[in-house]
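Need tokens for this chain, all 299 residues.
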Amino acid sequence: MKKFLSLTILVAWIVGFAIGFNKAYSKTDDQSLANSVVWEVTGPDLEKPSYLVGTMHIMCEKDFVISPKIHQVLENSQQLYLELDFDDPVVKNEMMSAMVAKKSLKERFSKEQYDQFAGFLSEHSQYKIEMFDQLEYIAIVAALTVEALSCRNIKGLDEELANLAQQLSIPVYGLETVAEQMTAIAIMDPEKGQLMTEEEISMFIDMKKYLTEMDNLYLQEDIVGLLEFMANYPGAAKSWDKVERVLLHDRNKNWVAKIPGIAQQKPTVFAFGAGHLAGENGVIQLLRDAGLTVKPIMQ
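Here are the structure tokens for all 299 residues:
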């Protein structure tokens, strides 16, 4: 179940962009952003710089690396803020509990929906639908994502940063609570009776290919290309604008409302999914709109 802990955040990040965002973003909107997942934040009310670090929530261990500049900004800071505080056992327990559904899958799905999903799992995965009866939909997608990675060991930068912070005696906090994150993620739950489209089925079948491409873009630190890729990811949603607002824009705005005040107190690393950095409603632009200077750290 530890995999589900990090994958809840991962799937929110991947699928949140994947569902119908094809008109939400164009690469030409943000040509000024350099290829970097580490950004320095300064301003008139900040005595010392703070930093934004874009993360990849999970990767195969063979592809995983923490760049020297990420090590450096963490050593230059006095606290770490992640999307959630992975250092807190209470948060971990809350996340585990949040994965357990209050109703069985048969109650949440129509018969046609249940049969379609059961058939898909039987044909394209190692899982039987009965294994997922008491899991939230996001946990089910997380399990399919792990399977698609096809690697024995996985790592996530968020949890590794929490481990590094512990070694440096740097406290770890969360930008949002488990309840807030799960409320946002719930926007992805299918409605009862809503069958998977051909595009969504294709998305699950080809998940490894898309994850590999995302990994490559992340390793190149191409945050604009990464957001563009996610904006054109296969999938569909009847209310893409609501999904975009809840999973991306609202969360970014909530974080940016907190970041300046936190940075005034102590130099801080703010680490979250790299997909939140770019775009007109990305964290970088929102902080600039708030009067802060945000510059890329290239090496």
